[in-house]
Design goal:
This protein is of the alpha/beta class and about 325 residues long. The protein is about 45% helix and about 20% strand. It has a nine-stranded mixed beta sheet, with helices on both faces. A three-stranded antiparallel beta sheet has the order 7-10-11, with helices on one face. It has a two-stranded antiparallel ribbon with strand order 8-9.
Length: about 325
Amino acid sequence: MKITIVGGAGCVGSSVAFRLAQDGYASEIVLVDTRHNLAEAHALDIDQAVVHRSKTRVRAGDTADTANSDIVIAAVDAPGRPPITSRGMSLGANLKLMVEVVGPLAKGSPSALWMIITNPVDVLVFLMHRIFSIPRNKIIGMNRNDTSRLRWAVANLFSVPATDVDGYVLGEHGDSQVHVLSQVKIGGEKIALSAEQRDEIRLSALEFLPRWLKLQPGRTAGWSTAESAGDIISSMALGDGRVWVCSVPVEGEYGLTDVSLGVPVRLGRQGVKEIVELDLEPAEKEGLLASAEKIRGKIEEGRSILRETLRTMEEMAEALKGKKV
């Protein structure tokens, strides 16, 4: 299995590369980044770090080196942008960056599964799916961290190991995410949560981003994202049939169309095998519909950005006709 990580010199990209190299399911990991020297430094370090653990080789490369990748992980982020207070703030800069990145790499790896980590992930998954005609079973967005934070919050509330907790967060990787508290299990047994407990769990899970930003860490949540990406890719390699929440384009599932959002899926080596439809409570269904509408609004905003960019490019080309530049 060949894996390319675009943005491999960043906090998320390098953390994901380290986790995947340790697992050993990939024969080769290629780190691509405009900061080639930093990508090469990470590649050398990781390649040596796993010599006692795995046969995976890690190297830095450019677009040509990514050809025939089985998985392409997009962990790019627009440089020099101000600190965000919500993931949606990244849309303008990151959408243009993703369009520049995906096109050339998709040509060299037409059968690759795309894992989008760049935010706003739901919007970018949908637009890349539509713009580049990537089959919907071949593109997933990383939002499993929301489910991890739900399980962490439940474990803290009940003073149990987080590994004993099962539960899911659906919808947007953002403030409108839906905590499926009707399906929470501890030790394999479904538990009944009071209204106060539900509120406490939601608050604990949702306050992560504000708490993180208040610390001014100068980085993003690289370790948790790396664990999520590693678990999902390991599950794909093993074909174990486990259920993971990923952002995928839906075509009727949960009564939704024309949007990508977090839903439970089963994955195999070829991509998404099944979208699992949970039995949601009425309030959870309403929350998912509202989350979908919010994402659709951002998708339309993204389309407007792309139209304006194209119009500007056409106007520049017209102005430059007959001129030497």
